[in-house]
Amino acid sequence: MEFTFQIHQRITVKVFLQNNDFSKKSISAIKRNGALLVNGQPVTVRHLLVHGDTLCIQLPREQPSSNLVPFKKPLTVLYEDEYLLIVSKPTHQNCAPSRDHKHNSLVEQVLSYFQQYSFELTPHIITRLDRNTSGIVIIAKHGYIHHLMSQTSVDKRYICICHGKVKQQGIIEAPIARHPDSIIQRQVHESGKYAQTMFHRLKSKSQYSLCEVQLMTGRTHQIRVHFQFIGHPLVGDDLYGGKQDIYNHQLLGCKKVSFIHPITKQKIEVIDEYDTIETKFNML
């Protein structure tokens, strides 16, 4: 992966890189295994650029962790370009390997996808989802793109089904902390970190509500904890009081994402048309 810039001022390569959001880690990696070319000639970061120069930055190739085992299974690709891959993740799949689920993760599935098309790329997951939450996951094709996306505001919209009839719309503000009796479970507690969730009800029936949710903060299990806190736990979420006979996982999915692309500067909006949450609501 490489980037080309036309230079319009006197500036060192190092300062130019810093001004264009190349992190110290990225600059070090380029110095070790990448390349810096000015008008086709290799230079160091101390080189002084002048008006009219062409700077080509060749990012180093990355090696995926040896702990990842490529998982060959078709991906549901929603968007792809030279820098990003956006997919729809099913329930019952980890985004990355864990102690209890060491393989068959989404990142290993993406690694197999890259290898299938002879792309020498290493996947970097930007937006993670819980194992049993479905929907959109954004993946960077290089650590540098991951760094840029970490500085990019991503508007994520979720859809969920909760028990009972919630009000038409609302804002939940309640701090979230780790539960003292669990390494996984979270709870609303005054010692926790500030968390805010916005929602509006799309549909309702006697026992259930279908809601669209927007996270204003990004705490672990935030939607699940907040809906339990207001007395409307997510259907199927037995960790947070929403146990249901038909479904053994929370009915929650990331339905839509939008952001300004860090490279092209264009607005990207992706909707997961494969989402089944609304269909499940109609079947309840």
TrEMBL record:
Catalytic center residues: D130
Major enzyme class: isomerase
Presence of the UniProt keyword Ligase in the record: no
Source domain of life: Bacteria
Keywords in alphabetical order: Isomerase
Record-listed E.C. numbers: 5.4.99.-
Catalytic activity: a uridine in RNA = a pseudouridine in RNA
GO molecular function: catalytic activity, acting on RNA; pseudouridine synthase activity; RNA binding
Keyword DNA damage among UniProt keywords: no
Residue ranges of every copy of the Pseudouridine synthase RsuA/RluA-like domain listed in the record: 83-228
Biological process per Gene Ontology, one example term: enzyme-directed rRNA pseudouridine synthesis
Family: Belongs to the pseudouridine synthase RluA family.
NCBIfam families xrefs: rluA_subfam (TIGR00005)
Matching PANTHER family: MITOCHONDRIAL RNA PSEUDOURIDINE SYNTHASE, PSEUDOURIDINE SYNTHASE
Function: Responsible for synthesis of pseudouridine from uracil.
Designated name of the protein: Pseudouridine synthase
Source organism: Staphylococcus gallinarum
